[in-house]
Protein: Rhodanese-related sulfurtransferase
Amino acid sequence: MKGLFLLVLITFVFISASVIAADVPEVTQQQVLSLKAAEKAPKFIILDVRTPQEYAEQHIDGAINVSHTDIENNLSMLSQYKDTMVIVHCRSGKRADIAENILLKNGFNQIKHLAGDMNGWVAAGLPTIKQ
Structure:
């Protein structure tokens, strides 16, 4: 019985450690707007990791859509952005955390998280487009 409990405990610790989100710096909505407006802004992309349906309904102009469930399958396409600032967001943050961890594990070194995600962007009345 003790052995089974210890095995379950060890398994839980390893699983918990693997799903803890990386410490990704946030960028504010205003910082994103400034980057988009600046003539000499550093190169960056906005990566929307919501579903294609959510993206089609409403998204930030210029955002690239790759669902968080498809990030690993699209690493070759995304690899051109490994040394570029990648600003990741979803609806509320959970899916973005998953995508950020995958990107970090695959050598993307300038990952940022959009503070407030899409919910915050919309609540602030910031511009979106529909596909």
